[in-house]
């Protein structure tokens, strides 16, 4: 599998603009001062922007107009004075130095993306006030492109051999079809899903409840190394941050938001995976669950989701894709106007086209290797070629259209 080049912070955003460096620094500072998912901070930034929000957080007091509006909104259930003072107290911490954070990130191969960056996944906006202030990334894959066609696979840490097999198989089959897998990097179902996705050739995204430079669980050092090479590790928490139970639960909303749908492979009735399922439902994402033995506690949560009508029962990648949308439909919108002539293709796209078989089909990873391009580039080129009518998606991957333009 070809390694992929990341989109670095400061690159042009989709609108052609750049995120001002002082805005990036302000968000980096606020990420140390406010808890991830802090809705008051999210509304404060929406109200006045990150620079003024940082000023208020540093002094530990909110502008009267915003404070009055927020008190009305929350019906005074939140002590705004205490909250603002807690932000200021964290600012006084010697580690709260955004410039040092960004420098440390560069040294450790990590990057900070914020809203407005080209790599920022806009589906996170669905989290509204609880959207991340920014995300630390460590890995070669482009997060936004990886999540355009992604499915979350989650479940029990104490997974059974059946659960591990199913998660790995789903991850691999989805990956072969060009879908990225998002999960949490934990033991059990998460790890199996990541490994299956890596075997299939598409990028995988691991959302952690600690800094991207912290290996948790420690036994996954090798797995995270492979994910960094062929996918991306993400986190809302600054470098060096260690996980807590609360952070795992807060992190789950990001896993749900990044994906078209969430598959719960195994979950007991009190499993943390059901928290991710709740977020997926709240975000109007597709929610799916895999059935298991009726005698297994590790499947009781899945069975409850299905029985209550909250999740669709799925048993294969085909059924998952049928629900979240076919890869061909995602990448190949209906053609409008004249198609792109073959001699108008750029060099990379032409090489990808030449690597697509006329019969059968080939997965995007195989095509990328044959064309000598990275997997992200191959997926982009395949999307353009499909839209232009040169290639089509088939169960085994991609092939040339029988009646090209």
From TrEMBL:
Region (Disordered): 1-20
Gene Ontology process terms (BP): DNA-mediated transformation
SUPFAM superfamilies: MCP/YpsA-like
InterPro entries, alphabetized: DprA (IPR003488), DrpA_SLOG (IPR057666)
Every Smf/DprA SLOG domain range: 112-323
Family: Belongs to the DprA/Smf family.
Name by which UniProt lists this protein: Putative DNA processing protein DprA
């Amino acid at each position: 599998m070809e390694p992929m080049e990341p989109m670095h912070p400061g690159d042009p955003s989709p609108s052609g603009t750049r995120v001002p460096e002082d805005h990036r620094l302000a968000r980096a500072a606020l990420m140390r001062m406010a808890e991830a998912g802090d809705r008051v901070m999210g509304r404060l930034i929406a109200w006045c922007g990150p620079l003024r929000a940082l000023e208020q957080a540093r002094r530990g007091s909110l502008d009267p107009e915003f404070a009055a509006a927020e008190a009305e909104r929350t019906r005074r259930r939140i002590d705004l004075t205490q909250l603002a003072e807690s932000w200021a107290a964290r600012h006084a911490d010697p580690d709260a130095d955004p410039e040092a954070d960004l420098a440390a990130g560069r040294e450790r191969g990590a990057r900070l993306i914020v809203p407005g960056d080209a790599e920022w996944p806009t589906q996170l906006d669905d989290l509204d006030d609880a959207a991340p202030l920014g995300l630390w990334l460590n890995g070669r894959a482009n997060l936004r492109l990886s999540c355009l066609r992604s499915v979350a696979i989650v479940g029990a840490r104490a997974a059974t051999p059946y659960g591990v097999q199913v998660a790995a198989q789903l991850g691999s089959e989805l990956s072969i079809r060009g879908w990225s897998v998002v999960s949490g990097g934990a033991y059990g179902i998460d790890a199996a899903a990541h490994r299956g996705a890596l075997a299939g050739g598409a990028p995988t995204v691991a959302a952690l409840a600690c800094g991207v430079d912290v290996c948790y669980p420690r036994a996954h050092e090798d797995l995270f190394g492979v994910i960094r090479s062929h996918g991306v590790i993400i986190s809302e928490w600054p470098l060096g941050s260690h996980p807590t139970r609360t952070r795992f639960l807060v992190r789950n909303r990001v896993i749900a938001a990044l994906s078209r749908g969430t598959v719960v492979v195994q979950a007991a009735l009190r499993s943390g995976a059901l928290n991710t399922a709740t977020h997926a439902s709240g975000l109007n994402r597709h929610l799916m669950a895999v059935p298991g033995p009726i005698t297994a506690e590790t499947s009781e949560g899945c069975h409850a989701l299905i029985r209550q009508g909250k999740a669709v029962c799925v048993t294969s990648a085909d059924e998952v894709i049928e629900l979240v949308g076919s890869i061909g439909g995602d990448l190949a919108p209906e053609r409008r106007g004249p198609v792109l002539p073959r001699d108008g293709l750029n060099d990379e796209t032409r090489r990808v086209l030449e690597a697509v078989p006329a019969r059968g089909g080939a997965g995007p990873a195989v095509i990328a290797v044959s064309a000598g391009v990275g997997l992200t580039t191959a997926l982009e080129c395949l999307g353009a070629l499909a839209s232009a009518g040169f290639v089509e998606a088939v169960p085994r991957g991609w092939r040339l259209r029988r009646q090209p333009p």
